[in-house]
Amino acid sequence: MNIKNGMVYGTPESQGLSSRALAKMLQELRTKVEDFHSIAVVKNDVIVMESHAEPFGPANRKMLHSLAKSINSIAVGIAIDEGKLGLDDYLLDYVSDKLPDSYDRRLKRMTIRHMLMMAASSCPGSIGFLGAEHPWMTHYLGLELPAEPGTVFNYDTGASYMLSCLVSRVMGKTSFALVKERVFEPMGITDAKWLTSPEGHTVGGWGLYLTTEDLIKVGKLLMHKGEWDGQQLVPAWWVEEATKSQIAVKDGSGRTYGYQFWVREHAFSLLGAFGQTVMCSKDENLFVVLTAGTGDDRKQNDIVYRVLMETDEACHVGPEDPEGQRRLQMLETDLLIDPPYGRRSAVAEEEMFHRVIELEDNRRNLHKLKLSRMNKQLIRLEMTIDGVEYSFDAGYQDWTMNELPEDDCQRVPADDYGFYHCFRPDRFVHNQHALAYAWIGDSLTVKHYWLNTTYIDTFSLHLEGERLKGTLIRNVAMGENAPVDLLELPRTI
Question: What pTM was computed for the model?
Fold first, then answer.
């Protein structure tokens, strides 16, 4: 055993797990999950496996999508435990002042319990608030209900936001402020961020920024029913109730839903889009933390569930297994998000580089681009996005790290909709980037990994006559993810 940064590390065999089974699982994840970013396996509070795919690392704070809902549930549980909210309280008893002129009368029967188990309304994702004509609470309350409250599961990010608003109203502080004070700070989580809505509430259902190490601490907290180093940070009864099945989910996955947690027979999980996972087995005192940029996160989670939660495949009773540990260590140290592979330079650089390229209007609001060669192994991309200039260096077939001062990157957009610009900028930071390039055929290929997100942009640029032409493709996205065409405006003489 050894201790690093307050975390206990040991071999899988010391905790009754098989290094060979973990190596097999990791290899399957690498081959079947695109843009696999990180994994940690923790048994009996001992980290027996931890790996980060270069250029992503343990210090990168990543924007969590719906995994944030489970953390928001912790805030709701604290409020309920202190008698400020009740599971069967009616929503409108707290927010009737936000009702629109026209609303579904079934809303009067909606309770806090219904919202927690996603049997309320249906505002499926964060973009459900995109273009809202009213304040977000009023927008949500004006939606037509898909069913009688409490009867049918309907994925509802809007309900998570409303729960956050209730916490603000009854606790006198935002959901994030409450969790930060009561939970994060006692656990040593000091650099978290959470997006804030235009109304000043924590968004609740997404937009929380944590590191992998932070997520390991969250997993440990939940495995101990809310206790941390002898302090009961989260009511134990709430952890029990929130992480057990409360309503059926008829999607063929075998999953059910608790109070903002996903539940299976042998595990409960905190899940976010594109492969963000904390999967916990109460029976085995085991949990797994994963991050990725995959469009098929269910495949990833099914692999982990099958190997570690559902079968005895990973069990090991016996002596240490040096050969199995060596195989696992080789896989852990060899994780890499592939950069582009190709030639270092091309003749086309003479025409494409060292000039300002003005682009036609495009969905990503990329208006200007300048490419420059810095040395044999490095090029520079200077981009104007929404009128703001940014400069990034890209290494040849090798990731080059770029860290922007936070004041300079508050408006760097991470989505295709300009949606995040409606958030308060002091809650929104994407300052860590990694870029790599290579010439493939006649095209310059540049990969741009937004390290604080799940997103990787791939530029493919070439000359068509005298004009630059190309595409910009994102690995995953909320909503439409079609390639963005880039075309240089005709040059004036």
Answer: 0.94
